[in-house]
Design a protein that fits this description.
The protein has 351 residues and is α/β, with parallel strands linked by helices. It has 14 helices and 11 strands. The protein binds flavin mononucleotide. Pfam families: NMO. This is Probable nitronate monooxygenase.
């Protein structure tokens, strides 16, 4: 049983299912390899990893599978941390640090060096490179292409998809507004780019000639079947993989995903400075009306709080990225999830 599409042929995979790269520890090498071994495409969410850690994780994936997999990074955006007064940024965070018994850190690390991260992807000849938040420089993309790496960009609008296609990507992930995690929007304001998956996918399919991957709110075979009917050649699922035993997130975060209601998530800039969808919690609610620095500055300022909260099982202060369909999550091994989604979609499509 399989759905052969332009995407499966491009990525050399059996099933048109991509497990989203999810930065922050969710996408362990075990998860990535399990999805790829099951015939989908596992993705290492490597944006917050040092180049050395990325190389090591790629090695671990390769011990577990010799099938294609992807590495995902954030395209860097210009930022100026000196625009923000540390005293002002830390003021609303003090109450959380006090509760957690931690001090504001002295020096902050904002981002990992993108060019060095990319160099690892290139040197390791990673089969698929996916990215979000923009388009990498042309010289980087052509070097990856020459190395035989398939390029997958993220779009939240038709305008962005056309820019990605002109930049030479091999496939476009259409990220609907239902999606968990950060908005990939890189042209214009994010509020204007909150297009739902069901509206976005056919518009992308009509506009670009490369395969379109539907993403946002897809949790089971109904989502896969619907996405294919809408003109997508595959799906990218993030939240659906969070409850899997191979996923590296905190157990309490997994519980929160499974306990979510249809209206449990919201978009917030409070944790990182960039709009992202997560399960509403105390930190999001209390910080809602605060002015916070742009990404990645706020992300660096809240890192110690999120880490200490995780150590103490305090999910009310952790970022719980998840999509609007979280309650459809199932606690099954990743390979079984891939198989079930394919089986369900096949049944619905009369295969
Ligand atoms: C916990 C989490 C972390 C994410 N991190 C990334 C990331 O590092 N890079 C990326 O391109 N997308 C990331 N995303 C977004 C996914 O690529 C995708 O758009 C989203 O998961 C699709 O919606 P769904 O969660 O409803 O499946 C993340 C999503 C989640 C839930």
């Amino acid at each position: 049983m399989s759905f052969s599409t332009g995407l499966t042929r491009l990525l050399r995979i059996q099933h048109p299912i991509i497990q989203a790269g999810m930065a922050g520890g969710a996408t362990t090498p075990r998860l990535v390899a399990a999805v790829s071994e099951a015939g989908g495409l596992g993705t290492l969410g490597a944006a917050y990893m040092t180049p050395e850690a990325i190389r090591e994780a790629i090695g671990e994936v390769r011990v577990l599978t010799n099938r294609p997999f992807a590495v995902n990074l954030f395209v860097p955006e210009p930022f100026d941390a000196s625009l923000y007064d540390p005293g002002e940024v830390n003021a609303p965070l003090a109450v959380y640090r006090e509760e957690l018994g931690i001090e504001a850190p002295e020096g902050l690390s904002y981002v990992q060096p993108f060019e060095d991260q990319l160099a690892v992807v290139l040197e390791e000849r990673v089969p698929v490179f996916s990215f979000t938040f923009g388009v990498p420089e042309a010289e980087h993309l052509s070097a990856l292409k020459e190395a035989g790496t398939v390029l997958v960009g993220t779009a939240t609008t038709v305008r962005e998809a056309l820019v990605l296609e002109a930049g030479g990507v091999d496939a476009v992930v259409g990220q609907g507004s239902e999606a968990g995690g950060h908005r990939g929007t890189f042209i214009g304001g994010f509020e204007e780019a909150l297009v739902g998956t069901i509206a976005l996918v056919p518009q992308l399919a009509d506009s670009v000639s490369v395969p379109v991957v539907a993403s946002g709110g897809i949790m089971d075979g109904r989502g896969l079947a619907a996405a294919l009917l809408l003109g997508a050649e595959g799906v990218q699922m993030g939240t659906a993989f969070l409850p899997c035993p191979e996923c590296g997130i905190h157990e309490k975060y997994k519980e929160a995903v499974l306990a979510a209601e249809s209206e449990s998530t919201a978009l917030t800039r409070a944790f990182s400075g960039k709009p992202a969808r997560g399960i509403r919690n105390r930190f999001m609610d209390e910080m809602r009306d605060r002015e916070v620095p742009e990404y990645p500055v706020q992300n660096a300022y809240t890192r110690d709080i999120r880490a200490a909260a995780a150590r103490e099982d305090r999910i009310e202060l952790m970022s719980l990225w998840a999509g609007q369909a979280a309650r459809l999550g199932r606690v099954v091994p990743a390979a079984e999830l891939v198989e079930r989604v394919v089986r369900e979609a096949a049944r619905l499509s009369g295969r």
